[in-house]
Amino acid sequence: MRLGAVIITMGNRPDELKALLDSVARQEGDPVEVVVVGQGVRLTGLPEGVRCVELPENLGIPGGRNVGIEAFGPGGGEVDALLFLDDDGLLERTDTAELCRQAFAEDPRLGIVSFRIADPETGETQRRHVPRLRASDPMRSSRVTTFLGGANAVRTAVFKQVGGLPGEFFYAHEETDLAWRALDAGWLIDYRADMVLLHPTTAPSRHAVYHRMVARNRVWLARRNLPAPLVPVYLGVWLLLTLLRKPSAPALKAWFGGFKEGWTTPCGPRRPMKWRTVWRLTRLGRPPVI
After folding, report:
1. pLDDT tens track of the chain, all 290 residues?
2. 163 and 133 in contact (C-beta within 8 Å)?
3. Which of 60, 76, 112, 227 is the most exposed place for a label (fewest CB within 10 A)?
4. CA-wise closest residue to 214 among 249, 251, 165, 268
5. How far apart are CA 50 and CA 24, in angstroms?
6. What's the CA gap between 14 and 235, in Å, rounded?
């Protein structure tokens, strides 16, 4: 089982990036091939053997990761699976790569593994980082319906079958888009509490574009992937949840602007999932209406 790793960076966290690369180099078993993608920045000081791709502009999270995938050949075909790691993260254990190899080898239908994210100081895992509705126990591994974008491993056969991440999303919900397509193609997704990426506790709203992108991409996600009768149900539920969370007036204005944008701009190809996939998602505890 050949493993690669894709790390995208804006070049503003050189110390954290170096620490992450060191943690990848310490992994047991065969070496993990690494590519670092610079999002509109020059890359310097990378360890010998690390591949680098310098993009002339920031393509966003999914766009940058897609470039990283292709750095391993079409669809990442030079390796069997790819780790996607945030540049300010750190692999806590030295056996994470071996655990990935073992998980994929034991289950040929396993397509994606989502790691547990823990704060390096407190060990806390934020509820939003547990990719299921029943998120109170982050130490419980389970089968899930989505995954964490900056702490995961994906079998490259998934990309060959269903395509890469939706580059037009730029930021937010690109993981769920890929997850739904993978599940519709018959792949499985696991959340593994024993595969840990250390990452400082943060709030997603720290990004200036957060509210707009979240709303726009939520609409795109539904338009691209859900059977027509479920689109208004899914978006209606998320509209209600957004209002119940009582965001600030500027945040709510940005959210509604993004929501409108999601309906009035192209979202990419529409490939609604099968109804049996809807039932699979429901049995896994997360029907595609929430």
Report:
1. 999 999 999 999 999 999 999 999 999 999 999 999 999 999 999 999 999 999 999 999 999 999 999 999 999 999 999 999 999 999 999 999 999 999 999 999 999 999 999 999 999 999 999 999 999 999 999 999 999 999 999 999 999 999 999 999 999 999 999 999 999 999 999 999 999 999 998 877 555 589 999 999 999 999 999 999 999 999 999 999 999 999 999 999 999 999 999 999 999 999 999 999 999 999 999 999 98
2. no
3. 227
4. 251
5. 11
6. 39
